[in-house]
Amino acid sequence: MLSGLKDRVQVKTILNTESHLEGKEVTLAGWVYNRRAHGNLLFIDLRDGTGIIQISIHKDKVPQKVFKDVERVTRESSVIAKGVVRSDRRAPGGYEIDLKDFHIEGLAEEWPLPIDAGVDVLFDKRHLHLRGEKQTLIMRVRATVFDAMREWFKQNSWTEVHPPIIISASVEGGATLFKMDYFGEVAYLTQSSQFYLEAMIQSLEKVYCINPSFRSEKSKTPRHLTEFWMAEAEAAWMDLEDITRVEEQLVSYICQVVAERHRKDLETLGRNPDDIGSVKPPFDRISYREAIERIKKKGMKIDYGDDMGADEESKLTEDLHKPMFVLEYPKDLKAFYHLPKPSDPSIVMCGDCEAPEGYGEIIGGGQRIHDKDTLIKRIKEDKLKPADYEWYIDLRRYGTVPHSGFGLGVDRLVRWVCKLDHIRATIPFPRTMTRRVP
Ligand code: ATP
Ligand code: MG
User: Which of 47, 73, 106 is the last residue of a domain?
Assistant: First the structure.
């Protein structure tokens, strides 16, 4: 242990305890969030990995050197502070620290992010911007979303698997593949692990993975990243309705957990936790046809057969309070692997989950083709080469079963849950068409 930190306590411990630390001397280590002066009285807001606490420094009650150090310490300097815990109803967390001793570990240069810094400046300095209170809360909520997903899958007997990131054939279509040199051959970064999960359901039945996904999206929308995180699941013996039920249970569980564990954090982010806590099954289910009618009625120009973009999905979901499924799209709008509807093969048995309040699509899923000949026919119809999908077709040659799956865009879910304008704020170091630094 670092010398000087033997008696260290973290801010949360002080703020959480019913004054059992009151009157005790404690050591804190963290960063100077803010400093204010009132003549002979100085205040520091000290931030550590668990919270922020106010430290007060009286000129008459500390050695001269300590007071001088506090006077010269700059915003975001790292420090070790010793002091006595005092309850104070006016202090933000109910307690503050009367400083006794103070050590500057790393004196920070002038903080380069002014209060009125624009988005570009903030994201150019994202490595520093991430220290902000709001950014910290978003990262905590994000971590809980990942925890909750794993909890739900585990509770429901799904097996986590680890598909490759380097791949040779596309799932979503060639246009958005990131290409790389692989010992003189071409390889790509994965867009989706679906095909690999489809291989694994034949032994494990219900599998999921939580992976980054890479798409060279040229669209500069508030909901597309070029590197994003997807939770994907695939299950043998499930049809569209079965997998839709899985999706609504998973999303609801995540919402319950986040609302329960992050009430205050959500409030600070401007999100009423009850909006999220009240997300429970069942979600409404409408057909693509119905979705197009609704969007038309709201005055947008769209026809049956057109794809819904961000604007259309925003219109469709602006008045909703919980997610909704849009099922059964025309086959031309979706990838080749979706199961055609037996009574009308121009439609496929897929379903997108749309987040409310205008956020739009967070999950794409559905039932897959399990018949070999139908799959080959659909591959050809999409002007792709069956030879490129040999091993995928193999899965239909050896004990094929009806099956379904989905991909949940985790960053998009975090954006909705935290009520954020832009997806870039959901991930520590966002990658977009125009950003790969820092
Ligand atoms: P969109 O039409 O919005 O581009 P998509 O139909 O390409 O989405 P899918 O291929 O179904 O999306 O991927 C599954 C999920 O992954 C989507 O529902 C979404 O939540 C998420 N997703 C897809 N592309 C991105 C992206 N570029 N950035 C962030 N999340 C994404
Ligand atoms: Mg897309």
Answer: 106
Q: Which ligand is nearest to the CA of 410?
A: 1
Mutational pocket test of ligand 1: of 220, 223, 332, the residue with most ligand atoms within 8 Å of the beta carbon? 223
Ligand 1 near 409 CB (within 6 A): yes
DSSP H or E stretch at residue 432: none
User: CA 6, CA 136: separation in Å to the nearest integer?
Assistant: 26
Q: Which two tokens stand for residue 286?
A: 């409408």
- Token reading at 166: 């380097």
pLDDT digits (tens, 9 = 90+) for 369-412: 999 999 999 999 999 999 989 999 999 999 999 999 999 999 99
- Write the pLDDT tens digit of every residue in 408-435: 999 999 999 999 999 999 999 999 999 9
Q: Is the CB of 312 under 6 A from ligand 1?
A: no
435 closest CA partner among 198, 126, 207: 126
Q: Are residues 345 and 404 in the same domain?
A: yes
- Tell whether ligand 1 has an atom less than 6 A from the beta carbon of residue 354: no
Structural domain contains residue 114? no
How far apart, in whole angstroms, are the C-alpha atoms of residue 385 and residue 381? 10
For residue 288, the tally of other CB atoms under 10 A from its CB is: 22
pLDDT tens digit sequence for 91-141: 878 899 999 999 999 999 999 999 999 999 999 999 999 999 999 999 999
Nearest CA to ligand 1 atom 9: 364
Cα–ligand 2 centroid distance for 107 (angstroms): 45
Domain CATH number, residue 357: 3.30.930.10
Average pLDDT of the chain to the nearest whole number: 95
The answer to whether residues 296 and 414 belong to one domain is: yes
Could you tell me if the CB of 424 is within 6 A of ligand 1? Answer: no
Query: Would you state the pLDDT for residue 170?
Result: 66
User: What type of residue sits at position 67?
Assistant: F
Single-letter code of the amino acid located at 115: I
Does the C-beta of 172 come closer than 6 Å to ligand 1? yes
Rg (CA), the chain: 26
CATH at residue 87: 2.40.50.140
CB of 325 within 6 A of ligand 1: the answer is no
